[in-house]
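On clarity, I found the account of how folds are encoded harder to follow than it need be. For illustration, here is how one protein appears when written out as sequence plus C-alpha cells:

:::
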Amino acid sequence: MTSHAESSARREPSAIDAIADAYFEELCVLSPSISLFLGNENPHGFDDYSPDGLKAADDLRTRTLAEIDAAEADGLTANSLDATDLVTIDAMRERLGTATDLFEAGLQHTVLNVIESPVQQMRDIFDLIPTDSAGGWETVAATMAALPRSIEGYRQSLRYARDHLDRVPARLQLGRVAAQSEALGDTDSRFAALASDATQAVSDTFARELTSHAEAAAEAFGGLADFLRGELTDHAPDNEACGREDYSLFSREFLGAEVDLEETYHWALDQLGSIDAEQRRVADRIEPGAELFDVMAGLDQDPRRALHGTKALQEWMQGVADEAITELGKTHFDIPEPLRTIECMIAPSATGAVYYSQPSEDFSRPGRMWWSVPEGVTEFATWQEKTTVYHEGVPGHHLQMGQASYLADSLNRWRRHVCWVSGHGEGWALYAERLMAELGFLDDPADYLGMLDSQRLRTSRVIVDIGFHLGLRAPDHLGGGTWDRAKAWDFLTRNVAMDRTFLAFELDRYLGWPGQAPSYKIGQRLWEDIRDESRAAAGAGFDLKEFHSRALNLGSIGLDPLRRALLR
C-alpha cells in the first residue's frame, strides 16, 4: 500500500493512527499550550510543569509505546501496515523514546534557559491568542488565571531536581531567567498591558476580572524570580557546560538522529573556513579590496537597503514572502491554495526573536511569520534579512509546517501538529536558504552575502556549542585549551556580524540550551546528505521537486526516521 506521500487518494485512518491521535488528545490535556498554539479551544488552563505533571506525561508515553508495539505485531500478522504506518511507528518510537530517556535522566525537571523554557512559554503564548472577539478574551483570561499554578509546578520540579537528582541549572542562567521573570512581575508587564487593552473591548466586570488575573500572574512571576535568585542560586554550579552524557541526549532530542559529536565539531571548523573564503570572494565583488566586515558595515549604511521603522519592516517582509510563494509555486514546489497566504507580523513581546506559527487546523488563522523587535530598534537592513524571510516563510517553515497541517487526509494529528523536531524543521529552513540561492533568488551579491552570513552564524554555533559543552580543545587562535565562556565570546565576536547586545543573548542561549542551536546547521547537513543519497539511489531518474514533495509530505520527524523513510 502507499501513503499520501506517494498518492493523492484519501487514506483511511489505521489502528496506528488511532493510537497516535489518542496520544495527541491526552497530551493536549497535559499541555494545553499545544491547543492554544493550534488556535483551538482550551478548557484545561495551562501546562503542568510539576513533577506529577512530568510523570503523567511519561506514563502516557509508556502506555502509548506499548500500544504501538501491540498494534505493529497485529498489523504485521495481517499484512495491513502501509508506508504511513511504518513512518509513524518509527517516528513515535524515536520521539517518545528520547523523551523518556530525558525524563529518566532528570533533564526534564531542570529546563531553564533564556529563550525556550517555561518562563518564555508562559509569556509568549499571549502573542498567539486572538483578542478580536469575546471568546478570544475569555481564553486570555482563562490562560492567565492558570499561570500561578503552572509557575508553582515549575518551582516544584526545580526544587525536586535539586533535592533528589542533584541537578540545578548554572548560576548565570538562573540569574538571566530571574531577570526575565522579574520583568514579568513588574506593574507594567505584558499581563498588565493585556488587561489594559481589554478595557476597550470587554465589559467593566470582565476587565476587572482580567486585571485581577494579571496581578496574580505578575505576583507569581515575581515570586519565581526570588526563588531562582535565592533558594536555587545558593546551590547552583558556576560551570555552564552540561558534559558529554547529557549533551548526547540533548543532541538526540533536537536532531532525531545520532551523530559523531567530535567529527561534527571538526567538520564545522572546516565549514567555517569555506564559508569565510566564499564570503570574502563575494565581498570583493561588492567593494574590491575592502575587508569583509567593512563591506558588511557599509551595506548596513546603504540607504537603498535600509528600512525605517517596524511598519516598513512588516510591509517589506510581506512583499518578499508573497513574491516567493508566487514564483516558487510556478515550477519548484506544489503549494496548496491554503498555504499561498502568509501573514507577516510584528510581535508585541519585543524579545528580538524571529519565529513562525503554523496555521490553525481549519486554516481560518493563516501561518504567520513574527518579528519580535526589541524596544528602541528602528533601523533594519534588507541585505541581512531577505534570507530570514525565506527561512521563516517559503520554502522554509511556512511550506514545511503548513504542508504538514494541510495533509489531514494522510497524516494523523500527532504527525501534523506535535511531532516537531528541531533538526528537521530548522535544518530544512536553513537548507531552504541555500536552496533559494541555487534557484537564483539571491543573485544580488549583497543578498547572497546575507545568506552566507546566516550560514556562518549557524556554523559558528555548532563549534561553540559542542566545543563548550563537551570541553573540547579550542582553536589555536583562541589560545587552545578547553573552551570556556571567554573563549566562546572571543570566537563569536570574531565571526558573527551581529549587534553585541544580540550576540550576548545568543551566547546565553547556547550555553543554557545545549544541542538546540547546532541543530540548524547539522540538520541542514543531514538534509543534504539524505538528498544526495536519494539522488544516488535514483540515478538519472532523480527529480528534485519530487524529492522535496515526498520529504515534506512526511511531516516533521526525526532525521534518522526521515532517512529511513525516504530510502526505504
Q: What stands out?
A: The first strand starts at residue 306 and ends at 308. The longest helix spans residues 134-164. The chain is about 65% helix and 5% strand.
